[in-house]
Amino acid sequence: MPAVVIVGAQWGDEGKGKATDLLGSRVDYVVKFNGGNNAGHTVVIGDQKYALHLLPSGILSPGCVPVIGNGVVIDLSVLFEEIDALQARGIDTSKLQVSANAHVIADYNRSLDKVTERFLGSRKIGTTGRGIGPTYADKMNRLGIRVQDVFDEKILRQKVEGALELKNQILTKVYNRRAVDVDEIVDELLSYVDRLRPMVSDTPLLLHDALVAGKTVLLEAGQATLLDVDHGTYPFVTSSSATAGGACTGSGIPPTRIDRVIGIVKAYTTRVGEGPFPTELHDDAGEHLRKTGLEYGTTTGRPRRCGWFDAVIARYAARINGVTDFVLTKLDVLTGLEKVPVCVAYDVAGVRHDEMPLSQSDFHHAVPIYEELPGWTDDISAARTFEDLPKNAQAYVTAVEKMSGARISAIGVGPDRDHTVVVHDLL
Ligand code: GDP
Ligand code: IMO
Ligand code: MG
Question: I want to staple 177 with a disulfide (CB 3.0 to 4.6 A). Which of 110, 171, 216, 330 is the partner?
């Protein structure tokens, strides 16, 4: 029985949360496998709107077991804040499972994230300031604190002492900050032990057993392909593996178990934070997309940078992730435009590139080559089948599908769960 991966195909905020929620009632497990509370997923169910950061979007589906996988970095204070807020709204969070091997974001890593960004000045990444990068750096440096460490005070103290030995030197001598006290960190982490203990399990084993028993597992990415630490626009990326390969390492589910990869792609493009973005619009058209698409960050509230659809990126995401199906989201936002430009390739110093340029410098200098497609004016939010869409909207979807390298199986026509045109079944 299937394990299905959902990934972002652009720079994040494509609508992964809505897509996960849409499938939530038909899957048994939803696993978050990378990132942490840098993610922000808005899910709209009827008149209720939920903003999720650390919890998998499957938490909103009553029959589904939400899992925080080993590849995630967990801010324990945010975990319990989010749980409490959902419980106060009547959402059952009791099934949540947390990997014993997931790393925790210690307070010093939040401080280091912010202070490093300030230090970088104009070279900053524009991070969410949640401590994500420093925590993954600790994981790779073998200085990280894992969920299981919190249950052994002696080990926890040793590890925090080990991490702070170097970090306090950096904080005080490089950044001119005060040193962090070991006890403060240890005490904060220990304060979560009682609430955390019942949720923690061997999640790779749990998921293995579930798949053997014929259950369906949905693996939900945070961030997106172009923010992936290996395949994204490095160094303007997040610090985790947000692509389909990361779904395996971040959950313990082997590649041979993955049956399907669903790429979520917006009908235009957005990006938050710094870094190259070839189709970015600095004019009224960009402002129009931002206003109509309500493109303001769920996590930091920052206005998202907006631009036209970029087929080079979509093709790249299809290839890197092995996308079997795309969900094209926010098509409704394009309604009312006379012409809709789509970037089909780049011009880099007079040379046409149909694929992502090899070097960062070339990507920085990529000038989009546009094809203009005719727009449509009829409201499409009530469309539920492909045939319900105006002819020009159908033609836009078909053109984008041809350029992107995988079939478009669903189309978003509004923020609500029901605002979806299903072309092919996603499960
Ligand atoms: P995620 O991080 O990929 O889960 O995406 P976000 O939740 O950060 O951003 C997507 C935003 O678009 C959310 O506010 C969604 O409610 C909204 N959204 C998702 N799909 C659609 C759609 O098809 N049409 C419209 N108008 N809004 C959508
Ligand atoms: P979802 O899951 C959009 C961006 C930040 C910054 C870079 C690194 O909602 O799609 P980090 O704090 O991760 O070290 O920041 O990555 N970023 C996102 N942009 N959506 C996200 O998540 C993001 N998570 C991180 O803006 O440019
Ligand atoms: Mg988001």
Answer: 171
Backbone dihedral angles phi then psi of residue 310, each to the nearest 5 degrees: -120, 105
CB atoms within 10 A of CB 199: 18
Domain spanning 103-194, CATH class: mainly alpha
pLDDT of residue 85 exceeding 90? yes
Write down the mean pLDDT value for the chain: 97
Residues 6+ apart with CB under 8 A from 122: none
pLDDT recorded at residue 193: 98
- Contact between 218 and 6 under an 8 Å Cβ cutoff? The reply is yes
Closest approach atom of ligand 2 to CA 130? 12
Q: Atom 13 in ligand 2: which residue has the minimum CA distance?
A: 238
Q: What is the model's pLDDT at position 60? A: 96
- CATH label, 3-97+199-262, candidates 2.130.10.10, 2.40.30.40, 4.10.400.10, 3.40.440.10: 3.40.440.10
Alpha carbon of 321 to ligand 2 centroid (Å):
19
**Residue-level pLDDT at 1:** 58
Give per-residue pLDDT as tens, 190-208.
999 999 999 999 999 999 9
Catalytic residue list: 13, 41
**What's the rounded Cα separation, in Å, for the pair 17 and 195?**
26
Is 330 near ligand 1, meaning CB less than 6 Å away?
Answer: yes
pLDDT above 90: percentage of residues in the chain: 98
Tell me the CA–centroid distance for residue 384 and ligand 3, in Å. Answer: 24
How far away, in angstroms, is 341 Cα from ligand 2 center? 26
**Closest atom of ligand 2 relative to the 113 alpha carbon:** 14
Whole-model pTM: value is 0.98
Dump pLDDT digits (tens) for 356-379.
999 999 999 999 999 999 999 999
Is residue 321 within 6 Å of ligand 2 at its C-beta? no
Return all residues near 64 (Cβ < 8 A) that are at least 6 apart. Answer: 24, 25, 27, 28, 29, 30, 58, 95
Q: What is the mean pLDDT of residues 12-26?
A: 95
Find the 405 Cα to ligand 1 centroid distance in Å: 23
Atom nearest to 40 CA in ligand 2: 9
